[in-house]
Amino acid sequence: MINWTSLETVFLDMDGTLLDLHFDNHFWLEHLPRRYAEHHNLPPGEAKDQLISMIMAEKGTLNWYCTDYWSNRLDMDITGLKSEIGDRIGYRPHVADFLQTLKNTGLQSVIVTNCHPDPLELKLQRTGLDTLVDSIVSSHQLGKPKEDTAFWHDLQRLTPYRASATLLVDDSFPVLESARSAGIAQCLGILAPDSKQAARKTHEKIPCVHHFDEVLTAIQAQRPLPSTG
């Protein structure tokens, strides 16, 4: 499925790949509509319809992910509202074992996320995820989302890498397709990003897994640990 022996760098999405997407889905589809209705004195159904319409209009753009944009647009403190349900932030299955295996076998691990720096900090405080990887890059540092093919070229400024020796793991098919178009050699999709929702169908051209335990044996077989003898 993946040629682990050819790799130097593994780019990792965060939400839906390392962390359970349930937090974000619950926030945008349930918690925010409820608080938006209260804040603007609207019926819950009307508030949700308004929000979903506004959000979907920004899909695929950096605004879609921008906490500052939505705080200004909605006249609400989005990061503060996210912290209200911070107890829902958590890892997906087998993530710690997967990240430790990457480290043990000499692969550089870099989180490459569309998450805005403010909620990113909230998630790192809750999980300590930054201690398990080599570095983290937010698309907001480059001014364009991962869906934009130019993002992957601009990423070289912050994290130099050889595209031919790089793997991207992400739950977003549009992002994976963008990376492939930019020359990233290998991609791996995640089919079960939200623990409260059913898994999705696999991509016709990109290999996919439900959870990281499906690749641990292959990594260890293809990249045996250095001998200490």
From TrEMBL:
<dbReference type="InterPro" id="IPR041492">
    <property type="entry name" value="HAD_2"/>
</dbReference>
<dbReference type="Pfam" id="PF13419">
    <property type="entry name" value="HAD_2"/>
</dbReference>
<dbReference type="GO" id="GO:0008253">
    <property type="term" value="F:5'-nucleotidase activity"/>
</dbReference>
<dbReference type="InterPro" id="IPR023214">
    <property type="entry name" value="HAD_sf"/>
</dbReference>
<dbReference type="InterPro" id="IPR050155">
    <property type="entry name" value="HAD-like_hydrolase_sf"/>
</dbReference>
<keyword id="KW-0479">Metal-binding</keyword>
<dbReference type="InterPro" id="IPR006439">
    <property type="entry name" value="HAD-SF_hydro_IA"/>
</dbReference>
<protein>
    <submittedName>
        <fullName>GMP/IMP nucleotidase</fullName>
        <ecNumber>3.1.3.5</ecNumber>
    </submittedName>
</protein>
<keyword id="KW-0378">Hydrolase</keyword>
<dbReference type="InterPro" id="IPR036412">
    <property type="entry name" value="HAD-like_sf"/>
</dbReference>
